[in-house]
Amino acid sequence: MGTTKLTRKEILAEDPVHGMMIRLIEFFQTNTKKVGILAAVIVLVAIGIYGGLQFLDNRQAQAQEQLGKGMDFFHAKVSPDASDDPFAQGSAPVFRSDNAKYNAAAKEFASLVSGYGSSKLSVLARYYLGLSQLQLGQKKEAIQNLETVADNSRDRTVGFLAKKVLAADYIGSGNYKRAVEMLEGMIRDPQSDLPKEDLTLDLSRALVGQGKRDEAIKVLREASAQGLQFSPLKQRLMTELDKLQKMPLTGSQP
Question: Hey, is 93 helix, strand or coil?
């Protein structure tokens, strides 16, 4: 019998994988320059992505280091014999005055706030910036920063901390109504992870400031009946409750 010779086209039709390989080889042979450029572009893009990730990692590490430095300044010790260099006496910073340490801390936090947008790190830096400004007597700026943090949802815990500081400031300035609203909102909020006993203590003081002594006693009693039987916060609740119960109706605020 004679053999039947298949044409190249017929071979490709019968073996699609083999045909695809041949077509790829022909493509690379006829488009060597284009393929080389494409490969170079892919390599450059990969290098760019890797470099970008490395840059972001380094930037994040630097930001965390700066945040730590600012917090160290905020909690630093004060000594009259401290030098201009806060680290002259060792790794723990020491300042000549509270004003000096809070100014140094505020500088670090302000830099982070301006350079890192609305990131979680920036939210925490703004919270500490507000605290520093309160210590420096810059109340207007402090309240603005703390209110911004309180309204931010990127870090709920820091937001609640900011609200607690604001509530304390409202109590101190006599704005008891605003303090009560803020504290009651946090106590009812299931997402609030601050100790409710601590919030209740602040709430009782705000209620007393409004002249609502009986309501203050009620919230303290309710809080005392909940949670752990014995704890430092529970003891503070009981002490405050006892103090209010013994206070004459015409007594002064605690």
Answer: coil
Q: What is the CA radius of gyration of the chain?
A: 33
- 14-44 residue pLDDT tens: 555 555 666 666 666 666 666 556 555 565 5
| Whole-angstrom distance, CA of residue 135 vs CA of residue 124 | 17
pLDDT at position 253 is: 46
Query: Which domains occur in the chain, in start order?
Result: 65-149 (no CATH), 155-254 (1.25.40.10)
Q: Within the chain, where are the H helices?
A: 8-14, 16-30, 32-74, 98-115, 120-135, 139-150, 156-173, 176-188, 196-209, 213-224, 232-246
For residue 158 the two structure tokens come to 């820091």
Query: What's the predicted TM-score (pTM) here?
Result: 0.72
